[in-house]
Amino acid sequence: MAQIVKIKFITHLTHDVLKIVAEKPADLVYQPGQAVDISINRPGWEDALRSFTFTSLPDDDHIEFSIKTYPAHNGVTNQLLSLKQGDAITVHDVFGDIHYKGEGIFIAGGAGITPFIAIFKQLEKENKIGNNKLIFANKTKADIILEDKFLQLLGNNFINILSDEKIDRYEHGFISAELIKKNIDNSSKYFYLCGPDPMMQAVEKHLSALGLAESSIVKEAF
Ligand SMILES: Cc1cc2nc3c(=O)[nH]c(=O)nc-3n(C[C@H](O)[C@H](O)[C@H](O)COP(=O)(O)OP(=O)(O)OC[C@H]3O[C@@H](n4cnc5c(N)ncnc54)[C@H](O)[C@@H]3O)c2cc1C
Question: Which segments in the chain show pLDDT lower than 50?
Answer without folding.
Answer: none
